[in-house]
Amino acid sequence: MGTVNRLIVIVLFEGVDLLDVTGPPEVFSLVTRESVERGGYEVVLAAETPAAVTTAAGVRILPDTTFDEVGVRAIDTLLVPGSVEVDGDGRVLPVIEPGTVARVKALAARSRRVASVCVGAHILAAAGLLDGKRATTHWSTAQRLAADHPAVRVDPDPIFIREEGEVWTGAGISACLDLSLALVAEDFGEPVALRVARQLVMYLKRSGGQSQFSVPLEPVSPTRRIEDLRHHILNNLDRRLTVPDLAAYAHVSDRQLTRIFKTELGVTPHAYVESARVEMAGHLLETTDDTLERVASVCGFGTVDTLFRAFRRRLSTTPGEYRARFRPGPA
Fold first, then answer.
1. pLDDT in tens, 69-86
2. DSSP state of 139
3. Beta bridge partners of 211
4. 91-105 burial string, b = 16+ CB within 10 Å, else e?
5. Are 25 and 12 in contact (CB under 8 A)?
6. Is the CA virtual torsion 236, 237, 240, 243 positive or negative?
7. Which of 191, 131, 197, 139 is nearest to 167 (CA)?
8. Residue 221 pLDDT > 50, yes or no?
9. How many CB atoms lie within 10 A of CB 243?
């Protein structure tokens, strides 16, 4: 019996992000070597014409085929990268070219599975492929994706999301590697994906449940008082951080504190504190052997039960499951 390769088609267009295009093939190319089974992937780059495409990085890429030529084949995975441009006001906008959207929609109909990388989710959404589905994208364009496509349930937090109907969306540019490893794990099993990850000097630890967004990196507040308060929170997670405590520290009323948090950070003080505590707890679970009691205490949860409820609420998992999934194994 001959070798059977799964056909992966990566969409090319002018200005596409380079790593979106070149990152996934690096992962897929190692499958044949690391898998004991026959087969792997056939990766082809498809564009409107055979002419070289200039990426956002200025590097020119030659397509392997055209959309018309590959459109007659049975496609296993259609991978849609993205691109952004910055307008005169400094806003980051996704590039959505109608011709590319139409081609993606047509090719998706011939594909078993469709996946977007970074802001490529905007192209999938424009093609109607995300309607009624939960999806993610790079955090910088998540609000625009939600505004432009109300039928899409946008979640800017996960590294990637898999939805029914074999539709995957990935977050930031480097998350294309995590998404690619997840596709390999689905197709060939986690042992193969782990071996591929080791060859790439990566940990097979991040999944759709892990956040792409770090609390300390959230958009800063223009109010110096709230910025000082945010740093106070992050440096004192093991202490009492109720709304009255925080309001007293910031020298504002409870009501004013809540209003400022909602206006400038988009969340309540309680939600912000809990997110920071969950992130710190996740870091400890990934990097230490601390008991759950110790983690709960250090992060200000007080009890293990409170820690469990916060993880369920924020990450849809338990601290134990999080540690088992995301803590790096031995090299």
1. 999 999 999 999 999 998
2. G
3. 158
4. eeebbbeeebbebbb
5. no
6. positive
7. 131
8. no
9. 17
